[in-house]
């Protein structure tokens, strides 16, 4: 019997790295990707390929390499992404476009490259990394939140399209996770003094939340569950904070929910 094959984008660190290792432990042959594999610390059982999800030719070439080597991709984990902070008015359109090129169009490129092979085999799972800010508002991260809302809508719609072909498109929704997210997120390129004080407050809050956030292994276990559950769910929250956030969104009255969001983000009024 062939071992199942998983392709994990953005696997050099953080959630992607933990997911790649967890999938190896679960019995998968795993191919991880990074924009520059020469700088990647080797991971036991994970083969690495250079990939830029913002480049059509790079995506096509990597997917073909995986099929040439293994003849299949059973699970695609779309983890590669970038963050961004700042008030919506402070992020230029070009800055937002650069983020969407990775977080949204990068996912679409990977899906379009892998899906025909999965559909032809009549099986496969596409796991897209969303976030709690894919279903919650996130002041001072509006552009990033918008990209995750886009992934939510895209994935749910895609799942309805491909189920009859034996393929599922699933969402994993982490909350704050202890990674380099905050440090690696671009700052606004058109900062405005009117938002400066509140932006600094948010930055401090985000730094503390990530420092005390879930271990990436928590999210990795959920990714493995999404990859292997006999009857997978469309959405998987990852960690207790994400679970509580999902419940708040579903059951809290609108006014209570609005006040809680402002309180959590230390916003006046």
From TrEMBL:
Residues folding into a coiled coil are none
- Signal sequence region: none
Q: Which UniProt keywords apply?
A: Oxidoreductase
CDD domains linked to this entry: 17beta-HSD-like_SDR_c
Is DNA-binding a UniProt keyword of this protein?
no
**Keyword Oxidoreductase tagged:** yes
The record's listing under InterPro entries reads: NAD(P)-bd_dom_sf, SDR_fam, SDR_oxidoreductase
Q: Which Gene3D superfamilies match?
A: NAD(P)-binding Rossmann-like Domain
Q: Offer an example of a GO molecular function term for this protein.
A: oxidoreductase activity
The entry sums up its family as follows: Belongs to the short-chain dehydrogenases/reductases (SDR) family.
Q: Could you tell me what this protein is called?
A: Short-chain dehydrogenase/reductase
Organism the protein comes from: Streptomyces humidus
Q: What is the lineage of its organism?
A: Bacteria, Bacillati, Actinomycetota, Actinomycetes, Kitasatosporales
């Amino acid at each position: 019997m062939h071992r199942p094959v998983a392709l994990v984008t953005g696997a050099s660190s953080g959630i992607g790295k933990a997911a790649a290792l967890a999938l190896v432990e679960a019995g998968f042959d795993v191919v991880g990707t990074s924009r520059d594999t020469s700088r990647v610390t080797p991971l036991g059982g994970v083969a690495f390929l250079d990939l830029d999800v913002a480049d059509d030719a790079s995506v096509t070439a990597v997917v073909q390499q995986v099929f040439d080597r293994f003849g299949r991709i059973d699970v695609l984990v779309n983890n590669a992404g970038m963050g961004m902070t700042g008030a919506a008015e402070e992020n230029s359109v070009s800055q937002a476009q650069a983020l969407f090129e990775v977080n949204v169009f990068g996912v679409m490129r990977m899906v379009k490259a892998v899906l025909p092979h999965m559909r032809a085999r009549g099986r496969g799972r596409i796991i897209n990394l969303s976030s709690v800010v894919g279903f919650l508002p996130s002041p001072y991260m509006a552009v990033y939140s918008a990209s995750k809302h886009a992934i939510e809508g895209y994935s749910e719609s895609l799942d309805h399209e491909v189920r009859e072909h034996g393929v599922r498109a699933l969402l994993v929704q982490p909350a704050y996770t202890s990674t380099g997210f905050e440090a690696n997120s671009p700052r606004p390129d058109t900062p405005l003094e009117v938002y400066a004080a509140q932006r600094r407050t948010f930055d401090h809050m985000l730094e503390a939340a990530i420092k005390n956030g879930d271990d990436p292994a928590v999210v990795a276990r959920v990714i493995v569950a999404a990859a292997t559950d006999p009857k997978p769910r469309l959405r998987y929250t990852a960690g207790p904070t994400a679970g509580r956030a999902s419940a708040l969104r579903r059951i809290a009255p609108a006014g209570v929910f609005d006040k809680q969001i402002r309180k959590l983000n230390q916003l006046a009024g």
